[in-house]
Protein backbone atom coordinates (compact mmCIF):
# COMPACT_ATOMS: atom_id res chain seq x y z
CA UNK A 1 0.00 0.00 0.00
CA UNK A 2 1.34 3.40 -1.05
CA UNK A 3 -0.74 6.38 -0.07
CA UNK A 4 -0.81 10.09 0.55
CA UNK A 5 -2.66 11.61 3.50
CA UNK A 6 -3.75 15.04 2.38
CA UNK A 7 -5.20 17.63 4.71
CA UNK A 8 -4.71 21.01 6.32
CA UNK A 9 -2.39 21.53 9.27
CA UNK A 10 -4.08 19.97 12.29
CA UNK A 11 -6.52 17.88 10.23
CA UNK A 12 -5.31 14.75 12.02
CA UNK A 13 -2.89 13.35 9.43
CA UNK A 14 -0.30 12.32 12.03
CA UNK A 15 -2.96 10.89 14.36
CA UNK A 16 -4.55 8.72 11.67
CA UNK A 17 -1.20 7.81 10.08
CA UNK A 18 -0.34 5.73 13.15
CA UNK A 19 -3.41 3.49 12.73
CA UNK A 20 -3.19 3.19 8.95
CA UNK A 21 0.52 2.33 9.08
CA UNK A 22 -0.13 -0.29 11.77
CA UNK A 23 -2.90 -1.89 9.75
CA UNK A 24 -0.92 -2.09 6.51
CA UNK A 25 2.52 -2.66 8.09
CA UNK A 26 4.07 0.30 6.28
CA UNK A 27 6.33 3.15 7.47
CA UNK A 28 4.99 6.66 8.01
CA UNK A 29 6.95 9.24 6.05
CA UNK A 30 6.23 12.59 7.65
CA UNK A 31 8.34 15.36 6.13
CA UNK A 32 7.42 17.52 9.14
CA UNK A 33 8.78 14.87 11.55
CA UNK A 34 11.93 14.49 9.42
CA UNK A 35 12.51 18.25 9.48
CA UNK A 36 11.89 18.45 13.24
CA UNK A 37 14.41 15.63 13.77
CA UNK A 38 16.98 17.59 11.71
CA UNK A 39 16.27 20.73 13.77
CA UNK A 40 16.75 18.77 17.00
CA UNK A 41 19.99 17.21 15.74
CA UNK A 42 21.29 20.65 14.71
CA UNK A 43 22.22 19.49 11.18
CA UNK A 44 22.78 22.13 8.44
CA UNK A 45 19.33 21.24 7.07
CA UNK A 46 17.81 21.67 10.52
CA UNK A 47 19.43 25.06 11.03
CA UNK A 48 18.09 26.22 7.68
CA UNK A 49 14.60 24.74 8.15
CA UNK A 50 13.95 26.00 11.69
CA UNK A 51 13.30 29.65 10.78
CA UNK A 52 11.11 28.71 7.82
CA UNK A 53 9.00 26.30 9.90
CA UNK A 54 8.61 28.77 12.76
CA UNK A 55 7.31 31.35 10.28
CA UNK A 56 4.69 28.92 8.97
CA UNK A 57 6.11 28.94 5.43
CA UNK A 58 7.23 25.90 3.43
CA UNK A 59 10.77 24.56 3.14
CA UNK A 60 12.02 24.63 -0.47
CA UNK A 61 10.79 21.98 -2.88
CA UNK A 62 14.33 20.89 -3.83
CA UNK A 63 15.25 20.07 -0.25
CA UNK A 64 12.02 18.21 0.45
CA UNK A 65 12.04 16.23 -2.81
CA UNK A 66 15.64 15.17 -2.14
CA UNK A 67 14.78 14.05 1.40
CA UNK A 68 11.78 12.01 0.27
CA UNK A 69 13.53 10.34 -2.65
CA UNK A 70 16.30 9.23 -0.33
CA UNK A 71 13.77 7.97 2.22
CA UNK A 72 11.64 5.90 -0.17
CA UNK A 73 14.76 4.18 -1.51
CA UNK A 74 15.26 2.56 1.93
CA UNK A 75 14.45 -1.17 2.17
CA UNK A 76 11.58 -0.69 4.64
CA UNK A 77 9.66 1.22 1.94
CA UNK A 78 9.74 -1.68 -0.54
CA UNK A 79 6.26 -2.89 0.50
CA UNK A 80 4.76 0.57 0.63
CA UNK A 81 4.62 3.73 2.70
CA UNK A 82 2.35 6.52 3.86
CA UNK A 83 3.18 10.13 3.01
CA UNK A 84 2.08 12.52 5.77
CA UNK A 85 2.50 16.21 4.90
CA UNK A 86 3.98 15.45 1.50
CA UNK A 87 3.48 16.36 -1.32
CA UNK A 88 2.48 19.84 -0.36
CA UNK A 89 3.01 21.73 -3.60
CA UNK A 90 2.43 20.97 -7.28
CA UNK A 91 6.19 20.68 -7.97
CA UNK A 92 6.48 18.08 -5.17
CA UNK A 93 3.58 16.09 -6.66
CA UNK A 94 5.10 16.39 -10.15
CA UNK A 95 8.45 15.15 -8.83
CA UNK A 96 6.81 11.92 -7.64
CA UNK A 97 4.99 11.51 -10.96
CA UNK A 98 8.20 12.13 -12.93
CA UNK A 99 10.10 9.64 -10.75
CA UNK A 100 7.46 7.01 -11.57
CA UNK A 101 6.38 6.56 -7.94
CA UNK A 102 3.16 4.58 -8.20
CA UNK A 103 0.56 5.46 -5.57
CA UNK A 104 -2.58 3.50 -4.68
CA UNK A 105 -4.58 6.16 -2.83
CA UNK A 106 -4.80 9.81 -1.96
CA UNK A 107 -6.88 10.13 1.20
CA UNK A 108 -8.06 13.65 1.97
CA UNK A 109 -9.05 14.40 5.57
CA UNK A 110 -11.37 17.37 5.60
CA UNK A 111 -11.71 19.54 8.73
CA UNK A 112 -13.09 23.11 8.88
CA UNK A 113 -10.48 25.75 9.76
CA UNK A 114 -12.25 26.88 12.96
CA UNK A 115 -11.92 23.40 14.48
CA UNK A 116 -8.25 23.35 13.57
CA UNK A 117 -7.22 26.29 15.74
CA UNK A 118 -8.53 24.49 18.85
CA UNK A 119 -6.81 21.26 17.87
CA UNK A 120 -3.45 22.95 17.43
CA UNK A 121 -3.56 24.91 20.66
CA UNK A 122 -4.07 21.72 22.71
CA UNK A 123 -1.66 19.51 20.78
CA UNK A 124 1.18 17.77 22.60
CA UNK A 125 3.77 15.68 20.76
CA UNK A 126 6.32 12.97 21.44
CA UNK A 127 9.07 14.04 19.03
CA UNK A 128 11.01 10.75 18.94
CA UNK A 129 8.05 8.67 17.72
CA UNK A 130 5.86 11.34 16.11
CA UNK A 131 2.94 10.32 18.39
CA UNK A 132 0.49 13.14 18.91
CA UNK A 133 -2.01 13.87 21.69
CA UNK A 134 -4.47 16.58 22.59
CA UNK A 135 -5.00 17.80 26.15
CA UNK A 136 -8.78 17.59 25.76
CA UNK A 137 -9.65 15.45 22.71
CA UNK A 138 -6.99 12.75 22.86
CA UNK A 139 -5.18 12.97 26.21
CA UNK A 140 -2.22 10.74 27.10
CA UNK A 141 -2.76 8.20 29.93
CA UNK A 142 -0.55 10.30 32.21
CA UNK A 143 -0.62 14.08 31.64
CA UNK A 144 2.52 15.31 29.89
CA UNK A 145 3.89 11.81 29.21
CA UNK A 146 4.04 9.62 26.11
CA UNK A 147 1.88 6.47 26.53
CA UNK A 148 4.53 4.07 25.22
CA UNK A 149 7.83 5.42 26.55
CA UNK A 150 6.73 7.64 29.45
CA UNK A 151 8.97 10.38 28.02
CA UNK A 152 7.90 14.04 28.28
CA UNK A 153 5.59 15.55 25.66
CA UNK A 154 6.33 18.91 24.07
CA UNK A 155 4.35 21.69 22.45
CA UNK A 156 5.49 22.42 18.90
CA UNK A 157 7.10 25.82 18.25
CA UNK A 158 4.88 26.35 15.20
CA UNK A 159 1.62 25.85 17.14
CA UNK A 160 1.44 29.51 18.25
CA UNK A 161 -1.78 31.12 17.06
CA UNK A 162 -0.08 33.54 14.63
CA UNK A 163 1.97 30.77 13.03
CA UNK A 164 -1.08 28.51 12.79
CA UNK A 165 -2.95 31.24 10.87
CA UNK A 166 -0.03 31.62 8.49
CA UNK A 167 0.18 27.82 8.00
CA UNK A 168 -3.51 27.72 7.09
CA UNK A 169 -2.99 30.52 4.53
CA UNK A 170 -0.04 28.66 3.07
CA UNK A 171 -2.17 25.50 2.91
CA UNK A 172 -4.89 27.32 0.97
CA UNK A 173 -2.44 28.87 -1.48
CA UNK A 174 0.05 26.06 -2.05
CA UNK A 175 -1.39 22.71 -0.93
CA UNK A 176 -5.13 22.88 -1.54
CA UNK A 177 -4.51 22.90 -5.33
CA UNK A 178 -3.42 19.26 -4.89
CA UNK A 179 -7.07 18.35 -4.24
CA UNK A 180 -7.87 19.20 -7.87
CA UNK A 181 -4.55 17.85 -9.09
CA UNK A 182 -5.20 14.34 -7.73
CA UNK A 183 -8.99 14.18 -8.05
CA UNK A 184 -8.90 15.34 -11.69
CA UNK A 185 -6.07 12.94 -12.50
CA UNK A 186 -8.09 10.09 -10.97
CA UNK A 187 -11.20 11.10 -12.94
CA UNK A 188 -9.23 11.25 -16.20
CA UNK A 189 -7.01 8.23 -15.87
CA UNK A 190 -8.31 5.50 -13.58
CA UNK A 191 -5.42 3.13 -14.24
CA UNK A 192 -2.22 5.05 -13.51
CA UNK A 193 -3.64 7.65 -11.11
CA UNK A 194 -4.08 6.91 -7.41
CA UNK A 195 -7.69 6.49 -6.27
CA UNK A 196 -8.97 9.69 -4.65
CA UNK A 197 -10.93 9.36 -1.41
CA UNK A 198 -12.21 12.18 0.78
CA UNK A 199 -13.43 11.67 4.35
CA UNK A 200 -14.67 14.03 7.00
CA UNK A 201 -12.10 14.56 9.74
CA UNK A 202 -14.68 15.76 12.27
CA UNK A 203 -15.74 13.40 15.07
CA UNK A 204 -13.84 11.08 17.37
CA UNK A 205 -10.40 9.75 16.46
CA UNK A 206 -11.88 6.21 16.32
CA UNK A 207 -14.70 7.26 13.98
CA UNK A 208 -12.23 8.84 11.58
CA UNK A 209 -10.00 5.76 11.64
CA UNK A 210 -13.05 3.64 10.72
CA UNK A 211 -13.86 6.04 7.85
CA UNK A 212 -10.26 5.88 6.65
CA UNK A 213 -10.18 2.06 6.69
CA UNK A 214 -13.48 1.92 4.82
CA UNK A 215 -12.28 4.44 2.20
CA UNK A 216 -9.05 2.51 1.62
CA UNK A 217 -10.96 -0.74 1.09
CA UNK A 218 -12.90 0.50 -1.95
P1 LIG B 1 3.91 19.20 9.36
O1 LIG B 1 4.54 18.58 10.52
O2 LIG B 1 3.59 18.37 8.17
O3 LIG B 1 2.62 19.95 9.87
P2 LIG B 1 1.18 20.17 9.22
O4 LIG B 1 0.87 19.65 7.88
O5 LIG B 1 0.99 21.61 9.41
O6 LIG B 1 0.30 19.23 10.00
P3 LIG B 1 0.26 19.02 11.53
O7 LIG B 1 1.34 18.06 11.91
O8 LIG B 1 0.23 20.34 12.21
O9 LIG B 1 -1.18 18.38 11.69
P4 LIG B 1 -1.72 16.90 11.49
O10 LIG B 1 -2.66 16.89 10.33
O11 LIG B 1 -0.62 15.89 11.48
O12 LIG B 1 -2.60 16.78 12.79
P5 LIG B 1 -2.38 15.93 14.13
O13 LIG B 1 -2.68 14.49 13.86
O14 LIG B 1 -1.08 16.27 14.76
O15 LIG B 1 4.79 20.42 8.84
C1 LIG B 1 5.34 21.38 9.70
C2 LIG B 1 6.20 22.36 8.90
O16 LIG B 1 7.29 21.65 8.25
C3 LIG B 1 5.48 23.06 7.74
O17 LIG B 1 4.80 24.22 8.19
C4 LIG B 1 6.65 23.37 6.79
O18 LIG B 1 7.38 24.50 7.21
C5 LIG B 1 7.53 22.16 6.94
N1 LIG B 1 7.19 21.09 5.98
C6 LIG B 1 6.73 19.84 6.28
N2 LIG B 1 6.50 19.13 5.17
C7 LIG B 1 6.83 19.95 4.13
C8 LIG B 1 6.79 19.79 2.71
N3 LIG B 1 6.36 18.64 2.14
N4 LIG B 1 7.18 20.83 1.95
C9 LIG B 1 7.61 21.98 2.49
N5 LIG B 1 7.67 22.21 3.82
C10 LIG B 1 7.29 21.19 4.63
O19 LIG B 1 -3.61 16.52 14.99
C11 LIG B 1 -3.60 17.86 15.44
C12 LIG B 1 -4.18 17.92 16.86
O20 LIG B 1 -5.57 17.55 16.81
C13 LIG B 1 -3.53 16.94 17.85
O21 LIG B 1 -3.48 17.54 19.11
C14 LIG B 1 -4.49 15.74 17.86
O22 LIG B 1 -4.44 15.03 19.08
C15 LIG B 1 -5.84 16.44 17.67
N6 LIG B 1 -6.79 15.59 16.99
C16 LIG B 1 -6.55 14.66 16.02
N7 LIG B 1 -7.70 14.07 15.62
C17 LIG B 1 -8.69 14.67 16.33
C18 LIG B 1 -10.11 14.51 16.38
N8 LIG B 1 -10.73 13.63 15.58
N9 LIG B 1 -10.83 15.31 17.21
C19 LIG B 1 -10.21 16.21 18.00
N10 LIG B 1 -8.86 16.39 18.02
C20 LIG B 1 -8.12 15.64 17.19
ZN1 LIG C 1 1.50 16.03 11.59
Automatic annotation (TrEMBL):
This enzyme's EC code(s): 2.7.4.3
Residue intervals of the Adenylate kinase active site lid domain: 123-158
Catalytic reactions on record: AMP + ATP = 2 ADP
Gene3D superfamilies with a match to the protein in the record: P-loop containing nucleotide triphosphate hydrolases
InterPro entries: Adenyl_kin_sub (IPR006259), Adenylat/UMP-CMP_kin (IPR000850), Adenylat_kinase_CS (IPR033690), Adenylate_kinase_lid-dom (IPR007862), P-loop_NTPase (IPR027417)
Keywords (A to Z) from UniProt: ATP-binding, Cytoplasm, Kinase, Nucleotide biosynthesis, Nucleotide-binding, Transferase
Pathway: Purine metabolism; AMP biosynthesis via salvage pathway; AMP from ADP: step 1/1
Entry keyword Repeat: no
Gene Ontology molecular function terms on file: AMP kinase activity
Binding site for AMP: 31, 36, 57-59, 85-88, 92, 156, 167
Domain of life: Bacteria
Start and end residues of each stretch annotated as LID: 122-159
Binding site for ATP: 10-15, 123, 132-133, 203
Intracellular or extracellular location(s): Cytoplasm
Main location: cytoplasm
Region: NMP, residue numbers: 30-59
UniProt region (Disordered), positions on chain: 127-152
Family in the record: Belongs to the adenylate kinase family.
Domain remark from Swiss-Prot or TrEMBL: Consists of three domains, a large central CORE domain and two small peripheral domains, NMPbind and LID, which undergo movements during catalysis. The LID domain closes over the site of phosphoryl transfer upon ATP binding. Assembling and dissambling the active center during each catalytic cycle provides an effective means to prevent ATP hydrolysis.
Subunit architecture: Monomer.
NCBIfam families linked: adk, PRK00279.1-1, PRK00279.1-2, PRK00279.1-3, PRK14527.1
Function: Catalyzes the reversible transfer of the terminal phosphate group between ATP and AMP. Plays an important role in cellular energy homeostasis and in adenine nucleotide metabolism.
Protein name: Adenylate kinase
Species annotation: Hydrogenophaga atypica
Primary gene name: adk
Amino acid sequence: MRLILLGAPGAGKGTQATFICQKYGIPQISTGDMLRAAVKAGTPLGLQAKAVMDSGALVSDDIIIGLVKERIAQPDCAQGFLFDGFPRTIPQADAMKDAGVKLDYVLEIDVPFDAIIERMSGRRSHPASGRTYHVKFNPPKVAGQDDVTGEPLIQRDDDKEETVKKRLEVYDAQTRPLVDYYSQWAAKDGTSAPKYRKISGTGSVEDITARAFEALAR
